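Section 5: illustrative case.
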């Protein structure tokens, strides 16, 4: 199902507020209108999918973290 421009803007505002990061942007995917891309400072980090079930709409954030990315982080 299509994610509208209004929903994209609302998702971006929500994520920027929730994570206190104005560098987050959300943009449409031309090949997949049922999802959008999430970027931080221009770097792709996740995909959001839209779902409608029993009259309710939800958005699912899907973020894959590769093990090689974890190897580059120091243990806390």
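Designed sequence:
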């Amino acid at each position: 199902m299509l994610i509208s421009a209004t929903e994209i803007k609302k998702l971006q505002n929500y994520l920027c507020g929730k994570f206190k990061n104005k560098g987050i942007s959300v943009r449409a995917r031309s090949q997949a209108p049922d999802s959008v891309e999430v970027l931080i400072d221009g770097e792709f980090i996740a995909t959001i999918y839209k779902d409608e079930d029993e009259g309710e709409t939800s958005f699912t954030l899907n973020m894959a973290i590769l093990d090689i990315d974890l190897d580059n982080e120091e243990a806390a």
